[in-house]
Amino acid sequence: xxxxxxxxxxxxxxxxxxxxxxxxxxxxxxxxxxxxxxxxxxxxxxxxxxxxxxxxxxxxxxxxxxxxxxxxxxxxxxxxxxxxxxxxxxxxxxxxxxxxxxxxxxxxxxxxxxxxxxxxxxxxxxxxxxxxxxxxxxxxxxxxxxxxxxxxxxxxxxxxxxxxxxxxxxxxxxxxxxxxxxxxxxxxxxxxxxxxxxxxxxxxxxxxxxxxxxxxxxxxxxxxxxxxxxxxxxxxxxxxxxxxxxxxxxxxxxxxxxxxxxxxxxxxxxxxxxxxxxxxxxxxxxxxxxxxxxxxxxxxxxxxxxxxxxxxxxxxxxxxxxxxxxxxxxxxxxxxxxxxxxxxxx
Length: 346
Ligand code: AMP
Ligand code: MG
Description:
Bound molecules: adenosine monophosphate, magnesium ion
Number of domains: 2
Mean pLDDT: 96
Number of helices: 11
Low-confidence stretches: none
Shape: globular
Oligomer: single chain
Strand order of the largest sheet: 1-8-2-3-7-4-6-5-9-10-11
CATH architecture of the largest domain: Alpha-Beta Complex
Number of strands: 16
Helix content: 25-40%
CATH class of the largest domain: Alpha Beta
Radius of gyration: 20 Å
CATH topology of the largest domain: DHBP synthase
């Protein structure tokens, strides 16, 4: 299959109209959102949704998020809209927050992987909204990468994984948030299943106490049931070993410097994903400053891009652990998973 690429800015009208038709006819379109690039199909067509799983090599038990272009569309997808959902939608939609609730009959099992609940989000990106409107149906979309690899934050990342496997890529430039949406279930106690740009602190201001699933920062024990199927699967892994050093900035940097030297002595090539605060610690080493520890959103925005930049280029990628407050929770969740929970604390 030949993948057609449209520039979402210069070819705005024809690109989204054409891509909307492709979706309606059962095809696959990668498109930009404010979080990462999504790989979309008609969310009401089970056969079209199956193609997403094939193109990504995604495990069939990992459900998808339905993307809508207006808040009221959620009514058709859920059994009803609970009060706390209404308040969250008013506060954060359009935006990087996915809400899970009991599904309605029109949602195909292929979207929910057989679960009785469905995840829904209204994205904020213009191109994403224009595409959903052009398609005229909710768009089911996971991240537009081969399953297991870092999520794509540019159209080039998408093409590297998906060229020849999908019908269309809409190129809208780099994504702003850089990590996937916050996933919050509203079945039972509101619980974050995946942290993202909308933080626990922000959610609690609107609906009061919000739990964080323990699996966000810890590996699941052997045989432990996953509150969200995505937690079971390998994620975000570049073609290099990823090692995280935790502790104060100084401590993390000194652990990295020591281990870097050991790896190099063994003939392994390394890079450090450093921060503004620790730049001076890595003088003379191969390092890549990806953001500011005091503004974790800057680290989120760059993480996947940095993992892809160094994937296959070095043997070891070192990174610093940061505080889990605010967007730090999303950063640590993605980084720990990318490392397979390989953490050094001394
Ligand atoms: P992705 O599409 O790659 O951004 O992943 C979507 C995430 O949301 C995965 O971690 C899924 O397991 C999770 N998810 C989607 N729908 C549900 C659901 N109904 N219940 C629990 N988790 C879900
Ligand atoms: Mg994904």
